[in-house]
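Input structure tokens:
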């Protein structure tokens, strides 16, 4: 079965040189983008219900750009002036770089991990006397609280934003040759929107083991997967599959 149309369950890339656009041009396929899930901030009132007083914390643990946005949004809503002495522990360079949207980088105490939360943990451990706040989503990776508890630091988790299923009802009568997923939440959204979804000839591409597991638990077939040593990115995995499927097109 040849591939002509692909739906990626994420927002359209904002950069002009995205590998998805190259793939579309080289393989002459149509690629549409549509987020199957989106983020909604919780209100300052809900934060208070979680018994969170921002004055009680001396350090903020930031695991994503969403966490950065929603921490500062809540601070503003609560009229809380973030003190200059506040310490920021960022999971990756990308998160730390994004923090510059809100603070003057060189004047703040910012500690940066490499990529994973585990890689950030030695930095947190060095500052055991701080009071840490983890502003996060309602769907926190279990490893994060586990690691923080192991470190024995004084920390509190709070839901500052939620992952919400997007309304995809306008896609009810639209079919694609390939659906691309990056998280179990995307699969959850597919079935909340289309409870009677049947895979049939539709190919499913997934990124990451947890997403593969979510697909298989729904009784669906994984046709394309990444990352692998041969195809570390989703676009590379798609390209390899398309080249094989569309041979002699």
């Amino acid at each position: 079965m040849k591939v002509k149309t692909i739906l990626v369950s994420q927002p359209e890339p904002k950069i002009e040189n995205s590998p998805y656009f190259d793939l579309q041009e080289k393989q002459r396929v149509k690629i549409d983008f549509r987020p199957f899930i989106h983020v909604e901030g919780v209100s300052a009132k809900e934060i208070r219900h979680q018994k969170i007083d921002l004055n009680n914390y001396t350090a903020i643990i930031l695991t994503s750009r969403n966490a950065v946005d929603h921490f500062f949004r809540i601070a503003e809503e609560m009229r809380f002036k973030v003190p200059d002495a506040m310490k920021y522990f960022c999971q990756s360079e990308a998160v730390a770089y994004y923090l510059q949207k809100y603070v003057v980088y060189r004047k703040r105490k910012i500690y940066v991990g490499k990529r994973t939360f585990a890689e950030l943990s030695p930095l947190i451990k060095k500052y055991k006397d701080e009071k840490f706040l983890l502003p996060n989503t309602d769907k926190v990776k279990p490893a994060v609280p586990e690691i923080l508890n192991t470190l024995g630091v004084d920390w509190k988790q709070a839901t500052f934003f939620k992952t919400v299923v997007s309304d995809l009802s306008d896609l009810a009568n639209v079919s694609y040759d390939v659906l691309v997923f990056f998280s179990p939440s995307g699969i959850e959204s597919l079935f909340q929107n289309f409870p009677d979804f049947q895979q049939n000839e539709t190919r499913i591409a997934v990124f990451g083991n947890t997403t593969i597991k979510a697909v298989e638990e729904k009784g669906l077939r994984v046709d394309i997967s990444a990352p692998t040593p041969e195809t570390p990115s989703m676009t590379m995995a798609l390209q390899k599959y398309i080249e094989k499927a569309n041979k002699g097109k």
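The mean pLDDT is 93. Residues 65-77 form the longest helix (13 residues).
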